[in-house]
Write a structure and sequence with these properties.
The chain has eight helices and 15 strands. By secondary structure, the protein is an alpha/beta fold. A hairpin with a 2-residue loop joins strand 1 and strand 2 (about 15).
């Protein structure tokens, strides 16, 4: 998949393309993929959203020049692990495994509490159970995205309890369609993302269960995750202009 690159300065919460030539060591590559409402690009080359806009603003205020690059999520992870350039990826969760090869900014956004998303008609997934009991139920099929973290609490439970799992590389809209087709029973998602997807598609919110669990009571912070080539000093400059979570 071809990567789309936008070189420019960041202004007023949007990317504004600029005809500039910059040395590679002066530019931070921020890799992202369109994922409403977190990051949305337009044909004019602008990028904004719940995670994109705070990053745009902070880099602008820190005086850092940025190349915004549309990159598939699995390739984003490989670029940070490869540590061959000043690469950062937008809106990733922080966990112990990733801290072994990456540097993390302060939080750029805090999700609303995650929910288990299931069809309202699926009575096998109910509010009367615990999250651990749900994950132990091998008659139910959990949908997860390859290479993704669902936050430390869920990640640890998935390793410990080993639910029956279907792993995909598609986006959350594809995952929602798999749920609608009855191919899986449930998946984890932030409410703001699923609400957005339901709102722009021909889906009815009443057709879904949004199941809260005690373990998911607090939203998970999203960060800018960067290769080790990006210095702590630069991240400190960036962090100084972020909102506090």
């Amino acid at each position: 998949m071809r990567m789309k690159i936008i070189f420019g300065f960041v202004i007023l919460g949007l990317i504004q393309p600029a005809a500039i030539a910059l040395a590679s060591d002066e530019v931070i590559n921020v890799h992202y993929h369109d994922r409403p409402p977190y990051a949305v690009s337009t044909p004019s080359g602008m990028v904004s959203g719940l995670t994109a806009s705070p990053v745009v603003k902070a880099f602008s205020q820190a005086g850092v020049q940025v190349a915004w690059i549309q990159t598939p999520s699995n390739r984003q992870l490989r670029l940070v692990q490869g540590n061959s350039a000043n690469d950062c990826v937008l809106g990733w969760f922080k966990n112990a495994e990733r801290e072994q090869f990456a540097r993390f900014s302060q939080p750029i956004y805090r999700d609303k509490p995650q929910r288990v998303i299931a069809l309202e008609s699926n009575r096998r997934v109910t509010k009367g159970t615990s999250l651990s009991a749900l994950l132990r139920d091998q008659s139910l099929k959990l949908l997860v995205k390859s290479g993704y973290s669902y936050g430390p609490v869920v990640d640890q439970l998935l390793v410990k309890l080993k639910p029956q799992t279907t792993v995909v590389t598609g986006d959350n809209l594809s995952m929602l369609r798999m749920l609608n087709a009855g191919r899986v029973d449930y998946f984890f998602a932030a409410v703001e993302e699923i609400d957005y997807l339901i709102g722009i598609n021909d889906f009815a919110r009443a057709d879904y269960q949004f199941l809260p669990f005690v373990e998911l009571a607090q939203g998970t912070n999203r960060h800018l995750m960067c290769s080790r080539r990006v210095s702590d000093a630069l991240l400190d400059r960036f962090n100084a202009h972020l909102p506090q979570y």
